[in-house]
Amino acid sequence: MSEGDQTAKRKDPESIYRNVIHEKFKPSIDRNLCIKCKRCVKECSFGALEWDDDGIRYKGNCVACQRCVATCPVKAIDIVHLPTQYPPHASYTERVRQAITAQATSGGVLLSSCGTDMPYGMIFDDLILDSAQVTNPSIDPLREEVETRTYVGRRTGKITLSSDGYITGSEATSPIVAMDMPLMIGHISLGAVSYNTQLALLQAAKNLHILAGSGEGGLHSDFFPFAENVIGEVASGRFGVTADYLQRTAAVEIKIGQGAKPGVGGHLPGEKVTELISSSRRIPLGTDALSPYPHHDIYSIEDLQQLIAALKESTEHRVPVGVKIAAVHNVGAIASGVVRAGADFITLDGFRGGTGSSPRVIRDHAGLPIEVATAVVDKRLTAEGLRNRITLIAGGSIRSSADMIKVIALGADVASVCTSALIAMGCQVCQSCHRGVCAWGITTQRPDLVSRLDPAIGAARVTRLYTAWNEELKEVLGAMGIDAVESLVGNRDRLRYFGPNPKIAEVMGVKHVGEGWG
């Protein structure tokens, strides 16, 4: 061993332990095609590539964000998924051993982003849709109207509709917001995502005539013109919550829990708290934004009732006020209490839901699948005579129009979608949002990276995605012989379970395949 190597070893005696954390991905560059333009080095925000005298060299730290692949002008790059280099073991998998090694090195909590990537089965994939045949004829959505408009708010009392189907008057005690489809863009805060990303999402919501969540970071003044399409969020940290903010929303939501981290407050790393985020959230520049785990003014249903009443008064009873809860084991009873506290809508967030930053142990091991939670809440509220009072919004890994249709049949009025909207704008789900160096300009605050996302293009892509899903909803409703999406809500008889655990079907109130109606 040379003197230099011995010195390096003395300076970092633990490097040998870190070296056993192997890379998962590696760029493969075709040297015959490469024109040495260095575009890939410039585009890689994770610092995985560098240029030296021999050409492009891989340094490590590839997260498979695909940016180099997408921008290479001669298509000379592929991302290779590297095989495991650990001895095989059924219990101590590569994932487990890497986590142990990382924590033995850092002594800290492991953070991650997006929804859990644990290999839990997707219950949506075990549900089969029904279709009409002889005695219940189908409807051709190309020739007959199939209604997909829906409403968010308390649903009691008589309503008056205009000639084009929008509410003009109501006897209900709370206002109602109309949407052109039973889809909304879930809560994604400025800070977790870039300015351009939130602008694109809000513009898409306006294009689609639906709602989009602001997230718990308040609303930048530039986005006040989108007030008719924004659900504001009041979280435990109260970041950015002002009278001005509340007056510029179409609805307000109290965030009690989040599916990706139930029982845990929001966390925005200080690296992402720029001057823009500092001013919007009213927090010091460069500091972590850590929301308290509980609301320190809510310890009972009565306390929640007071906050709901206060928010209705502060918005002059102009907008519906709802409550967002994570899908947890006693979710039916919790939802019942929320309705009795006066909420106009409930948002259920399943444990596969996305996040900009979460303790991995919570993200991967706490909560309930949204499929089960939606059915359980719908059944509980129906049994107690409360279901027709509120709008039920459900989210947490709604990946496709099929998932949206199934969650509506399980009991939701509206499907809330986040990650799929980000994928439409270029997200590759590399689970590195918390690092703040997103190569696609989506979950970063670095100006050079933010500029990579064109808000107009992002908005157009999300608009087209949601429009396509709504058209597919009409196709399925027509095939079922249903002429309005309202008739599908909670209609679990149009689903059948085709999975390995019939007990899940029993809990959800869904019949097994082979069982008929009635």
Approximately how much helix is present in the residues? 25-40%
Estimated share of beta-strand residues: 15-25%
Characterize the largest beta sheet: strand count, sense, and whether it forms a barrel. Answer: 8 strands, parallel
Instruction: Name the assembly state.
Output: single chain
Number of E strands: 22
CATH class of the largest domain: Alpha Beta
Distance between the termini: 79 Å
Give a verbal description of the structure.
There is one protein chain. By secondary structure, the chain is an alpha/beta fold. The protein folds into 2 domains: 14-106, Alpha-Beta Plaits; 150-512, TIM Barrel. Helices cover 31% and strands 16% of the residues. It is built from 17 helices and 22 strands. It has an 8-stranded parallel beta sheet. It has a two-stranded antiparallel sheet with strand order 1-4. The protein has a two-stranded antiparallel sheet with strand order 2-3. α7 links the parallel β13 and β14 (251-255). α13 crosses α16 (455-480). It is globular, with a radius of gyration of 24 Å.
Features:
518 residues; alpha/beta; Alpha-Beta Plaits; TIM Barrel; 2 domains; 8-stranded parallel beta sheet; two-stranded antiparallel ribbon; 17 helices; 22 strands; 16% strand; globular
